[in-house]
Amino acid sequence: MKTQHVKLVEVGPRDGLQNEAQLFSVPERVQLIHLLAQAGLRFIEAGSFVSPKYIPQMTNTDQVLAQLTAFPNVRYAVLVPNIQGFNTAHAAGVKEISVFTAASETFTQRNINCSIDESFERFTPVIEAAKQAGILIRGYVSCAIACPYEGLISAKKVAQISERLYQLGCYEISLGDTIGVGTIPQVKILVKEAKSVLPTDVIAVHFHDTYGQALANIYASLEMDIRIIDSSVAGLGGCPYAKGASGNVATEEVVYLLNGLGLETGVDLTKLLEASRFVSEKLNRPSRSKVAQALLG
User: Fold this and answer.
1) CA angle, corner 247, sides to 242 and 248, nearest 5?
2) What sign does the dihedral 33-38-41-42 (CA atoms) show?
3) Domain 7-296 in CATH 3.40.50.10330
C-alpha cells in the first residue's frame, strides 16, 4: 500500500441525520459536529440547503453553520441541489459544497425528478458560481454499483459520469454504493474503471453496510490505492430505497480497521466514541457500530 494517510469524510451530520426519522435541533447538530471535530475529523458534512418540505432534518443549516467553531484545519461542507441552494450556502459563508447525481436514470428520476443529463444542467451553474467564488466542489455519484430499480450498473457508465463531474470542476468524486449490495469483485471493477479516467487521489468511496460488506469493500479499495473514505458516526442513516438498509458504514469501524492496518487518520477513537454515545443517546438506541458497542459496553 502506498500513502499511509487516509482522508476520512464524515457524512453523519448530513447524509446520516437526513435519513433518520428523529429531528435534531440546531444546538444538537452543532454539538455533534463539534464532538466530531474534536475527535480529529477534518472533513465534515455539516448539512444541506434543500427544501425543508422534502428533507425537514436539514432545516436551518444556515443557523448550524453560524454557530460552528472554526477549528484549525477543519472544513465544513454542505450539499446543494441547485443555484438557489448555492446562493443560500454562499451567503452562509461556506468554503466547500457538494453536488450529486446518480449512475441510474430511474433512480435519478425517482430521487430528484429529472434525468442524469438534466441533473448536470441543474448543477453546472452551481459549479461555475462556486468556482468564481473560490468554493471547493465535491461530486457524488449514487448507485455506483447497483440501483434498487435497474439492478447492477455498468462500471463504465459510472466512470463516464465521474469524469464529467471532474471535468466540470469537482476536486473529488465520491462513488456511492447507495443500497449496500456491492462485493469485493464488483468494487475492484468499479475502482479500476474510475482510475482509468480519474487521478487516483480524487476518488472517494462511500459504502453502505446493508449486507455487511462495507469494511471488506473498503479494504479492497485500499488495496487499489484509494485513500479517501466516506463514513458516518454510529452508522447513522440508511437509504429509503433499500429495504432493511442499515445505513452508512460506521466511522468507528473504519477507524478501527485503519488503525489495525497501521494507516493514519488523525482521528482519536476514544474521542470519536463520545460523539457516537451522544448521537445514540439522542436517538435512544444502541450505536450501529460494533466497535462502539464493544468499547462503550
Assistant:
1) 120
2) positive
3) no
- For 134, the 3-state DSSP assignment is coil
Which of the residues are catalytic? 239
Residue spans of the domains in the chain: they are 7-296
CB 11 within 8 A of CB 45: yes
Cβ–Cβ contacts within 10 Å for residue 7, how many?
16
Rounded-to-integer distance, Cα 177 and Cα 291, Å: 22
Distance, in Å, from the CA atom of 62 to the CA atom of 76, rounded to the nearest integer, reads 12
Q: At residue 95, what is the residue type?
A: K
Which residue, chain included where needed, has cell 473560490?
Answer: 134
- Report DSSP state, residue 185: H
Distance CA 62, CA 52 (A): 13
Give the predicted TM-score (pTM) of the model. Answer: 0.96
Give the tens place of pLDDT for each residue, 132-152: 999 999 999 999 999 999 999
In tens, the pLDDT along 14-73 reads: 999 999 989 999 999 999 999 999 999 999 999 999 989 989 999 999 999 999 999 999
Residue closest to 36 by CA, chosen among 291, 268, 256: 268
Q: Which three cell numbers stand for residue 283?
A: 436517538
